[in-house]
Write a structure and sequence with these properties.
The structure is a homodimer.
Chain A: H1 8-17, E1 27-29, E2 36-39, E3 44-54, H2 66-82, E4 87-97, H3 103-120, E5 123-131, E6 137-147, E7 162-166, H4 171-186, H5 200-207, H6 213-221, E8 228-232, H7 236-247, E9 249-254, H8 262-270, H9 275-281, E10 287-292, H10 297-301, E11 306-314, E12 319-322, E13 329-331, H11 349-360
Helix pairs in contact in A: 2-3, 4-5, 4-8
Amino acid sequence: MTEISSLGEFGLIDRLTAGLPAGHASTVMAVGDDAAQLHYDGSTDVLVTTDLLLEGVHFDLTYVPLKHLGYKAAVVNFSDIYAMNGQPRQITVSLGISARFAVEHIDELYAGIRLACEEYGVDIVGGDTTASRQGLVISITCIGEAPADKVVRRSGAKPTDIICVSGDLGAAYMGLQVLEREKVASAGQRDFVPNFAGKEYLIERQLKPEARRDIIAELAEASIVPTAMMDISDGLSSELIHICKDSHVGCRVYEDRIPIDYQTAVMAEELNMNLVTAALNGGEDYELLFTVPLADHDRVKDLKGVHVIGYITDEDKGCALVGSDGESEIPLRAQGFNPLAAEEVPEEPKQANVEAKSSDSEK
Amino acid sequence: MTEISSLGEFGLIDRLTAGLPAGHASTVMAVGDDAAQLHYDGSTDVLVTTDLLLEGVHFDLTYVPLKHLGYKAAVVNFSDIYAMNGQPRQITVSLGISARFAVEHIDELYAGIRLACEEYGVDIVGGDTTASRQGLVISITCIGEAPADKVVRRSGAKPTDIICVSGDLGAAYMGLQVLEREKVASAGQRDFVPNFAGKEYLIERQLKPEARRDIIAELAEASIVPTAMMDISDGLSSELIHICKDSHVGCRVYEDRIPIDYQTAVMAEELNMNLVTAALNGGEDYELLFTVPLADHDRVKDLKGVHVIGYITDEDKGCALVGSDGESEIPLRAQGFNPLAAEEVPEEPKQANVEAKSSDSEK
């Protein structure tokens, strides 16, 4: 028998889906991108993405309010649809509810989901609700649409394309560190008041992320169709490697071009953590990572909230971070959160993860 | 605080989805049928349904082989799409996997899902895979299609329509009783050999149900579009009440017209259980329940595997079972499996359920 952790999430998915036929004519693209692409009729393609969130693996109700959890659970699915250059339209919401939850708790969770749907113009069209013997289970599937000729996959990046990211990176991960730190500090204390002063942005990024609908709109307005795109849920480094692998290219990313917020930098200092490592590997930012042809450089550099961070190379160049001296190169590694290894590090998995990351890039 | 079991599954869903706007133009019908109906482009509508299955609530791995579990988990979703008069085309498969499962176990589960997809011509197009701290979690979403003018909902039944069911009823429920009985008998015994002689059909119906694609094809060939349809997952009685409520009608169903297999009858006798009660309330048959105009009677009665069991009345007549004397009437009640009450009856819930049902119809 083979332990699942020996394969990791992507390894297991590769194994399970190996040789899967895309048999029906309506299946344009199946497993392996932010969302599946289906073509039924007319000029619009249907996009489908799904997420399964389990208590104790993906969220900790000690510090995550149920309404925020609901909001985030919906938004991360919208983010996957935007990452295909599509628009999210509908979701289904399935809940497994253990006995310690009252109706009012589920109302709170659902209020967050409904709020996200209102904000993003998405309809809740179905779901399933059942008892769970073991904590809260949230499974959301999102359906979106895009004109068939505007869908952007991970596989279209070409050498000389420039690499862009939206917003800033590492803040959601630092927010998690703040929350974990306060959780530890609060242990056994009554009337504990957590200290979030100066960390408000980090907490917001962790608890109430937004999907970058605005960037998709900006790109459309500027008539720019990225050659490849995905959202950053597992960390920039991991996602860059995905795009490069699927596009059969390499990349160079400049360390001093990676956008990082001031609060993120302060928190890294407090934790004595390598800031660039955190920005490269911290997950859950839900920013967009995309590539555009070099010819679009002038138009894309002026887009609000978009940063040019590097360029695509031939495949044999590999994926590397160019140091702030402009010369030294460090190979990128995928250090993203591995939910299938989560059971192995039940005690403060995030902290352990960080240490591993820091030591990996110390040179 | 309100206990969730006080509302039940349908009560909770009603509460959570109350006043949900179907805001986007592409949402034709949201919550409240076997599947949601979406209209994007062209003449084809997109159907979406989803199911969340949790170990210990929906399945017991003591006697359910993983491959069968995978097959069934997929097929029950296909059944929901057929129940809209549609064709299933794609599924997403999300799995939460606890540490006691090895890769080979998940291979088995997935082999069952793949087999079902091959049999029914459905593609696996995505999913999510994660660790679970609490047993196996399976969340499947199925996407299907149907011509917009051929989609059949629960709400279209009209007085004088005739009521039809496919196949036979109660066998899956009796199969569960056999499996539970052998599980109890095997407790603490090594090398226990379960005795399934004469119960093969019941076991098959419970462990490897099929969706009635053939009936949908027959109806299409006969140019019959049902006025209302759903699949029987919670028991005939419960589903009839759904159709009548949504269509604002009543119904009369003849006790001696309800199709029951010989093995189901023998097992009811062995368990000293009311046979009709079991056929009315036993779930998981995944047969189709549908109504057609009276004018279609002659054509529908000759369809293979279809049984005419009663007729639709005005709403004020209510829903009733007509006894075998042709005169006595017993009001129908929804006694279907309530997954949100499952935690309250951890010890042999099915057995407790049956007793409650039997006593309800004893008069």
